[in-house]
Each structure stands twice: as C-alpha cells, then as structure tokens.
Amino acid sequence: MDEVNVWQSFLSQINDKVSSLSFNTWFKGLKLLKISDNEIIIADPGKTIKDQLTIYYKDLIDETLIEITGKSYKMIFKDENMYEPPEIISVNNISVVNTLEIDKKKINDYKSNLNPKYTFDNFVVGESNRYAFSSSLAVAQNPGKLYNPLFIYGKSGLGKTHLMHAIGNYITENSNLKVLYTDADTFMNEFVKMTRDTGDKDQNLSYIELFKNKYRDIDVLMIDEIQFLGSATATQQEFTNTFNSLYYNDKQIIICSDRSVNDLKMFEERLRTRFNWGLKAIINVPEYELKVKIIKNKMKNIDSMMDLSDDIIDFIASNCGSDVRNLEGSITRLQAYAAIMNIKNLKLEDAIEALDEYANGRGTFTDNSIGKIMSIVANYFNLSIDDLTGKRRSKEIANARMIAMYLCKLLTEETLERIGLEFGGRDHSTVIHACEKIGDDVKTNGELEKIISELKVKMSE
Ligand code: ADP
Ligand code: MG
Question: What is the Å distance from ligand 1's center to 280 Cα?
C-alpha cells in the first residue's frame, strides 16, 4: 500500500470508529505530509487538535495504524512548508473509496453460502410438497438441463429455502459445479453498492465488471425471496441481464418466492415471462398427515429423552398452524417445559398449557388453516386437494373450489392473495369472484346454505 492508501484507509477507519462530530473536529482537516519507515508526519494542526490527538486519541490512532499496516508508527507534527505533500483525494470521498475496497474484496471471494444442514434426506415429503420436492431433486440431478429456471413458491415456513439448499448441497457433493445461493436483498445491496458513483469513471466500470463476473461466472444461481426485487427497477434490469447470460449458457437458475409469478405485480413483464419459461412448483400448506410426519421426524432427530404421545402430536398438528418453523418451535417449547417442570411423560393438558402461545386454541380457525379447509371441502365432495388447486374446470370441481375459497375468506385471516396462492397460484381477483358468488348464492339457495353449514360443523369438530 502506498502512503496515500494508508492515509485514506486510516481516516476511513477512524471515521467508522468515532462519532461524526469528533471526526469532523479532530481528524477531517488533518493533512498528511509523509509516511516514512516508522513515522507518520502530519501538518501541524495547532495545539488544541495536537493535544487531543496525542493524548486522548493516541491508543486509537496507534491501534488503527497497526491494523492497516501491520506495524506501529509514531505520529509526529511538522510545519507543512517543509514538505511537498502527496496528492490526496478529498476527505469526503474517503469512506466511499474504502468501503468499496472492502466490498471489492468480499465480492471477489467465492462462497456458495450453502447451509449443509438442509438436505433432501431430512426433508419430509407429503402430498403438499411432493411436486416441489421431486422437481428440486430432478434439477439437482440435471442442473441446467431439465427445468430452467426452477421457480419454487409458497408461503413462509413451508420449506422453500430448505429445498434450495438441498439442491445446492446435492450438486456440490456430486459435481464440481459452482453454486451460489443468495437472496434478492443481498443481490440488490451489492448491485447498489457496486454502481455507486466513485467519482472515477474507470473505477466505476471495474466495480460493475466485478459484480457481473460474480453472478455470471457460476453454474448454478439461486435467488431466494425474489419478491423483494419488486420495488427495485434498476436491480431488476441487472437481474434480467444476469438471468439471460446464465440461461443462454445453460446454467441453472433457481428462484424462490412467497407468491406466484402472476402475483409478482411489481416485476417487469419480461422478467415474469422468463420465470414462466421453466418449471413452477408450488409448496402448499402441509396437510395434517405431513405435519404429523414432520413432528415425528423432528422428535427422532433431536437428542431428547422426551416422548410425545399421539394425542399431543395430534394437538400440535391441529392447532399450531402450518408454518413448519412453528411446528418445530412448539417441540422445542415442550422440551423446555418438560425440563423446567421436571415432567418425564408429558400429558395432553401439560402440552396445551405449554403451547398456549403457539396454539390457536382447539377447533378454532384463525390463521394458517387453508390446508385444513381444503381437505374438509375436498372430502365432503369426494374430490382430492389436487382437484381444488388444479386447473380442471368441470362444474362440480369449480363449485367446490369456490366454496372452499369462500370458507377460507370467512374463517381465516388470510389475505385474498394468499388464498389465491394456495389454490394453485390463482389471482386474488378469482378469490374475490368466488367469495361474491357464493356469498350471494347462499342467501337464496337453500341447498347451498345447508352445505355451507354442514362444512362449518365439520370444521369445528
Ligand atoms: P421457507 O423458506 O419456505 O420460509 P424454510 O425452508 O426456511 O421455509 O423452512 C422453515 C423450517 O422448517 C426449516 O427449519 C426447515 O428445515 C423446516 N422444514 C420445512 N419444511 C420441511 C419438511 N418438509 N421437512 C423437514 N423440515 C422442513
Ligand atoms: Mg425462505
């Protein structure tokens, strides 16, 4: 590092370490004259500042210089007329230049960001996530070849991020491909930082180059929580470029979203079109059986002496919502409860008390119960959940689907968007239509009224 770099890094680090008032008062006006082997020579700033620096800030200055150069310097003050000072970029640019230096280093270091904890082996499969699971495995076994992009969507806590990491871990174990997992927020922050004007045209270009290289020089790009790109037009454009570059070079792209492609309303049309090129896989809310399997699996994997009786498992599966994080959280909670209360065999009453916060209250439907409503309605009409979430439009299915949507709106706190999403990624206007239609018909159609009330009874059983 030459002396100008040392000095700029020094000021930038001090700027990070002290308040802006202190920085502006004591450091900002300092003028470097020369850095020699073991001395750093500063133009004499006058007694007050000199005293402050040599007494109050001495340790901070010494320590910062060691951090930057790896050795210690003595700071001395001289009359500036005795030196020809080196040319220095103005102080105002300093922190920009230096954080960019650091970012540049970070962006150059390749890291997959994969969490080895999430694998296909420990992903529990059921009706609601089977399609997403098998699509993910297929992509992991044939990256860039089968489905591109893979677009996984579904509400929070259903295992999207888990599946992404599982794909990444599988690929890195079985090939030499370069995998990169990131989320839309990180992508955007890096993009914004890299394109920030440094005041130097060549440097601006080289940072943008770096950014491009990072995201285009990989074989598998995974972007989680893509919905957060919705409000960022410039980043969306850059993402489209990245997408094109990878796509046309047969590199695999995997995207996760909390809503369907059609519900990514703030996205440019051309990006949505691209998301539609490949395979879209929804994860629905877990059905009761899957929740039971997940709870049992979790019990098997934790190091616990605690055993959960079937009625407790049933209680958790029926009352703790459909976010898998919540299911896992309730088990942890029970463990803690059992330990604190010194109970060996938890009884249902204990569990109900312990899970007070997690449970919605038995038999009442507040949130997260779309899956349950679907399964009750499907059962009632002798249909499958796939019929309700699928595309078939026979009168019978369409009618059951509308009734189920109506009940979801009536009995849960879910938004229209969310309900549409769970019903196979339909638009919220479809849900509005269903609610209005059934809501109107039920007033005049005695048979429909009877069906609805029978369904409501089943739901409170
Ligand atoms: P999302 O990204 O959809 O919000 P996550 O992938 O972060 O959800 O999942 C939340 C938690 O639930 C994670 O700890 C994950 O391992 C777990 N999880 C979700 N679905 C399953 C599943 N089918 N089998 C096992 N664990 C699951
Ligand atoms: Mg996630």
Answer: 18
Nearest 10 degrees: CA dihedral of 278, 283, 289, 294?
100
| 161 Cβ closer than 6 Å to some ligand 1 atom | yes
The Cα 62–Cα 69 span in angstroms is: 11
Query: Cα of 130 to ligand 2 centre, how many Å?
Result: 18
Q: Is the CB of 332 under 6 A from ligand 1?
A: no
pLDDT tens-place string over residues 347-365: 999 999 889 867 764 333 3
Strand partners, 75: 40
Distance of CA 119 to the CA centre of its chain: 17
- The DSSP output letter for 308 is -
Query: What does residue 34 show for φ and ψ, rounded to 5 degrees?
Result: -165, 145
Which H or E run includes 259? Answer: none
Compute the average pLDDT of residues 154-177.
96
CA–CA separation, 282 and 256 (whole Å): 10
List pLDDT tens digits, range 208-265. Answer: 888 888 899 999 999 999 999 987 888 999 999 999 999 999 999 999 999 999 989 8
Q: What's the token pair of residue 251?
A: 């590199």
Q: How far is the CA of 326 from the centre of ligand 1 (A)?
A: 10
Between 179 and 38, the more confident residue is 179
Ligand nearest to the CA of 181: 2
Q: Which residues partner with 150 through β-bridges?
A: 254, 279
**Residue whose pair of structure tokens reads 């007329």 in the numeric block:** 81
pLDDT tens string 376-385: 999 999 999 8
Question: Is there an atom of ligand 1 within 6 Å of 345 CB?
Answer: no
Give the residue, by CA position, lying nearest to ligand 1 atom 25. 123
Greater confidence, 422 or 413?
A: 422
Ligand 1 contact via 325 beta carbon (within 6 Å): yes
Q: How far is CA 228 from the centre of its chain?
A: 9
Omega before 149 within 30 of 0, i.e. cis:
yes
- Rg of the chain over Cα atoms, rounded to whole angstroms, equals 30
Question: Which ligand approaches the C-alpha of residue 123 most closely?
Answer: 1
Q: Ligand 1, closest atom to CA 159? A: 6
Using the predicted structure, report yes or no on whether residue 199 has a pLDDT greater than 90.
no
- Strands in 252-257's sheet, in edge-to-edge order, are 179-183, 220-224, 252-257, 150-153, 279-282
Average pLDDT of the chain is: 86
- Higher pLDDT residue, 84 or 455? 455
* CA of 350 relative to ligand 2 center, distance in Å: 32
Q: Measured in whole angstroms, how far is the alpha carbon of residue 88 from the centre of its chain?
A: 41
For residue 207, the model assigns a pLDDT of 79
Distances (CA, A) of 147 to 96, 123, 219, 424: 41, 21, 14, 19
Q: Cα separation of 240 and 416, whole Å?
A: 29
